């Protein structure tokens, strides 16, 4: 059975989840997380994507994105995942898929659920028992958003 086509609209918000193949780790060292962040910054700028929350877990990533043009989501994710996969495979002398299938995308209505979704994403390390508080996890948007420590990655939502 074929997979369904994504339904995307202009200026919409999405919760994106991308998991490592076979749920394997996609970050093996601290430098891998930083490389992903660097690639994310580049792709965000290149495809004019808004980023309102993120969390990089050992075997998957969560992104809260605003996609201004529907065609940019696929281009953005393709660039992000291919660039990181190339880096990862070269660094660890491996070949093949890094990601498990295509990424998941869920539309987010810009209301209370938007904020709840950001909190959900940032609380992932606590639920996974990696840290006792999201403030202690360096690979999420929590510190930047809550403490106002600009990491050059997050956008602020408008008040509409």
Task: Give your account of this protein's structure.
It contains 5 helices and 4 strands, in the order βαββαβααα. 38% of the residues lie in helices and 19% in strands. The protein has a single domain (12-147), classed as Alpha-Beta Plaits (2-Layer Sandwich). The mean pLDDT is 88. It has a 4-stranded antiparallel β-sheet with strand order 2-3-1-4, with helices on both faces. With 160 residues, the chain is α+β, with helices and mostly antiparallel strands. The longest helix is centred in the middle third of the chain and has 22 residues, at 70-91. Strand 2 (49-57) and strand 3 form a beta hairpin.
Topology record:
Elements: E1 12-19, H1 30-46, E2 49-57, E3 60-67, H2 70-91, E4 104-108, H3 112-122, H4 124-127, H5 142-147
Antiparallel strand pairs: 1-3, 1-4, 2-3
Helix pairs in contact: 1-2
Could you give the distance between the termini? Answer: 40 Å
* CATH homology-level superfamily: Transposase IS200-like
Largest sheet: 4 strands, antiparallel
Number of helices: 5
The sequence of SSEs as H and E is EHEEHEHHH
Rounded mean pLDDT score: 88
Low-pLDDT stretches are: none
Radius of gyration (CA) equals 15 Å
CATH architecture: 2-Layer Sandwich
Strand content: 15-25%
> What proportion of the residues is helical, as a percent range?
25-40%
The top level CATH class name: Alpha Beta
Spatial order of the strands forming the largest sheet: 2-3-1-4
CATH fold-level assignment: Alpha-Beta Plaits
Summed up, the domain count is: 1
Task: Give the overall silhouette.
Answer: globular
């Amino acid at each position: 059975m074929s997979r369904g086509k994504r339904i995307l609209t202009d200026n919409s918000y999405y919760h994106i989840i991308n998991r490592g193949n076979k749920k394997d780790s996609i970050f093996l060292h601290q430098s891998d997380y930083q490389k992903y962040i660097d690639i994310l910054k580049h792709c965000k700028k290149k495809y004019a994507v808004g980023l309102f929350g993120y969390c990089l877990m050992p075997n998957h990533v969560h992104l809260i994105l605003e996609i201004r043009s529907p065609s940019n989501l696929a281009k953005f994710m393709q660039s992000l995942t291919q660039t990181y996969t190339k880096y990862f495979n070269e660094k660890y002398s491996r070949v093949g898929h890094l990601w498990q299938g295509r990424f998941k995308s869920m539309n987010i209505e810009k209301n209370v659920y938007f904020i709840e979704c950001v909190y959900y994403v940032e609380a992932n390390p606590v639920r996974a028992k990696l840290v006792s508080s999201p403030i202690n996890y360096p690979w999420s948007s929590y510190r930047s958003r809550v403490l106002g420590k600009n990491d050059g990655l997050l956008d602020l939502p408008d008040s509409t």
